[in-house]
């Protein structure tokens, strides 16, 4: 008999508050790094997308020899007008040996966590080791997660933030009051990047925008490009991409969804996992510009689910649910109906 | 703010017992028939399979203009030895307009129900209208569901059952005691098919077997071939398939998974949906042999989820779960953490 664990939003919040969000981000980053190190062992299926006029619903599966995971995620730009999340999601982790799902988890908060953890893990390999100042362009739903991850994992102690919406800035400052991070508000993106070691772009508009123009990127900077993550949505002026090396999660997906959708199909990229294994060098000098063109890949969700599974087992958070039948005799499924007391 | 409904095993059993299993099967058959009638409107993605030495885990998505559904299903032949189900599953129904999932349902019982409902719905179009006697070869997990569906939807009043395992027969008879169906136990498959109007094959062995040989199929019979549903698993002697017309759910899938995997790639088949719309005739005469080579298709799961969604709304069965975040301000995801009382 197997049971399945459910980690809903309330459980997720309780788990994060028990462990501390900094520890959760560090833990997820370590799991992501481990899975990137074992990248060739993964079954990397493309996302399965169902498009409509209103948006897209996607399933993102991946597996290694022991575990299978998938995430359900939608993207509906018009949801914001109805007071709904543009993106929601949930994930499932299953046992490859039996095919039984083990964990069902909310993945709206978990996706923000894993995106920030992956960004900071990549920056630890790609940004200058002495990086202390981060420019943050976009103070939306992911901004606080990115900020805490870069503080905890990279050692950033100052953020220069810019957003076109003053209320977004106000929310960002309110949420991070007392976090120990020095926050300065910039009047423009150009002002935000002054003196920054790392530039994180994480804006929400679904269009080809120039959030970051070529003249704003100085030698030695690491660009953490988060917001350009689907066809028709980019943030960087294309010429930036030719000034340094571009690091990606999974080239076939990034060429469609990432900043490099602006570039020819054979535009050279470096796979992040090969930097982590040591097969390819990361940053080559203090003057090099490095760019992480992040779109979010199924293996990062897998790592997040794997981390969460280990934490719910260790802490007892999450509830047992009866999503799976557990008949005494597997051939007697019907017997569950005629003996309701066996449920 | 949107909530999501969870229909676990206990809720599913309670729902079936309130509505009556005959009504559930008839209801699902009507929903399947409606969706088959609108077949061209569906986005028909192939299954996404992840194979291992132990088995397979699959995601089966489909969508029309209003609703999106997918099923997670595994197939692990060795699970039986560990007292686990060979096949388990769950499904999700979502709103295409917002991408928000609405229903999470167990789909082990629901799959047995939809398979039986689809079989009986097909037989109502393909079997002789005066069919009263069904041969049932295989008394495993699906046998009782098939039996009740054929009683309720086709008008079968007598079943001649055969299984190699006496305990399976005993379980089948026990579960259907008092169901109003006359059950006779045959000593062989050949004896079971004597005088039958419909032959249902639903055996579990994962191999190319000859459960039904050519000489056992008389003129005018409808064959409901359920068990041959994955590569390397067939039940019918190939020559049977050339003696009548073969009806299938979705040819690209059935040619890989169904009985017709034994036949050349251009073996002629008729799509069941075209019979339901009236574009193609069903049974042509009282002497014709008709064969439903069923493998189970994503649209049938979609129909089942759609039916269940309507029933949980009407009855109140199922629980509200917090799989999705509902922040007051969608841009303030982080605010859920710092204000846990808002959860």
Shape of chain A: globular
State the assembly state of the protein chains. Answer: homodimer
Order of helices and strands of chain A: EHHEEEEEEHEHEHEHEEEEEHEHEHEH
The top level CATH class name of the largest domain in chain A: Alpha Beta
Give the CATH topology of the largest domain in chain A: Rossmann fold
Using only C-alpha atoms, the radius of gyration of chain A works out to 21 Å
**Strand percent estimate of chain A:** 15-25%
Determine the CATH superfamily of the largest domain in chain A: NAD(P)-binding Rossmann-like Domain
Number of helices of chain A: 10
Per CATH, the architecture of the largest domain in chain A is 3-Layer(aba) Sandwich
Biggest β-sheet description of chain A: 8 strands, mixed
The N- to C-terminal Cα distance of chain A equals 13 Å
Backbone structural class of chain A: alpha/beta
What is the count of structural domains of chain A? 2
Unreliable stretches of chain A:
339-343
InterPro entries (chains A, B): NAD(P)-bd_dom_sf, ODC_Mu_crystall, ODC_N
GO molecular function (chains A, B): ornithine cyclodeaminase activity
Protein name (chains A, B): Ornithine cyclodeaminase
Keywords (chains A, B): Lyase, Plasmid
Can you describe what's shown?
The structure is a homodimer of 343-residue chains. Chain A is α/β, with parallel strands linked by helices and 343 residues long. In chain A, strands 1, 2, 3, 4, 5, 6, 7 and 18 form an 8-stranded mixed beta sheet that branches. The first copy, chain A, has an 8-stranded parallel beta sheet with strand order 10-9-8-11-13-17-15-16. In chain A, strands 12-14 form a two-stranded parallel sheet. The longest helix of chain A has 19 residues, at 108-126. Chain A has 2 domains: 4-109 and 299-342, 2-Layer Sandwich (ornithine cyclodeaminase, domain 1), CATH 3.30.1780.10; 126-296, 3-Layer(aba) Sandwich (Rossmann fold), CATH 3.40.50. Residues 339-343 of chain A have low confidence and may be disordered. Helices cover 31% and strands 24% of the residues of chain A. In chain A, helix 2 (21-37) crosses helix 4 (143-154) and helix 3 packs across helix 4 (143-154). The first copy, chain A, is built from 10 helices and 18 strands.
């Amino acid at each position: 008999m197997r049971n399945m664990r459910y980690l809903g939003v309330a459980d997720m919040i309780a788990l994060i508050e028990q462990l501390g969000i900094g520890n959760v981000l560090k833990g997820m980053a370590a799991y992501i790094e481990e899975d990137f190190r074992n990248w060739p062992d993964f079954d990397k299926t493309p996302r399965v997308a169902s498009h409509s006029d209103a948006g897209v619903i996607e399933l993102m599966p991946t597996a290694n020899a022991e575990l299978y995971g998938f995430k359900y995620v939608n993207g509906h730009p018009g949801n914001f007008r109805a007071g709904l999340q543009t993106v929601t999601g949930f994930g499932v982790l299953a046992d490859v040996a039996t095919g039984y799902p083990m964990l069902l988890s909310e993945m709206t908060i978990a996706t923000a966590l894993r995106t920030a953890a992956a960004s900071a893990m990549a920056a630890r390999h790609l940004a200058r080791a002495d990086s202390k100042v981060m420019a943050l362009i976009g103070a939306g739903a992911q901004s606080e997660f990115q900020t805490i991850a870069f503080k905890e994992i990279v050692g950033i102690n100052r953020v220069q933030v810019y957003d076109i919406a003053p209320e977004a800035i106000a929310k960002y400052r309110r949420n991070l009051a007392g976090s120990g991070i020095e926050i300065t508000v910039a009047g423009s993106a150009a002002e935000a990047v002054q003196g920054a070691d790392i530039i994180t772009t994480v804006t929400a508009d679904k269009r080809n925008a120039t959030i970051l123009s070529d003249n704003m990127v100085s030698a030695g900077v690491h660009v953490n490009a988060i917001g350009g993550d689907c066809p028709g949505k980019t943030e960087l002026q294309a010429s930036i991409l030719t000034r340094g090396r571009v690091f990606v999660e999974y080239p076939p997906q990034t060429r469609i969804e990432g900043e490099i959708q602006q570039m020819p199909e054979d535009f050279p990229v470096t796979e992040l996992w090969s930097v982590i294994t040591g097969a390819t060098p990361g940053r080559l000098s203090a003057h090099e510009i490095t760019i992480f063109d992040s779109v979010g890949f199924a293996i990062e969700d897998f790592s997040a689910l794997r981390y969460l599974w280990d934490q719910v087992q260790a802490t007892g958070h999450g509830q047992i649910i009866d999503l799976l039948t557990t008949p005494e005799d597997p051939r007697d499924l019907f017997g569950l109906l005629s003996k309701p007391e066996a449920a």
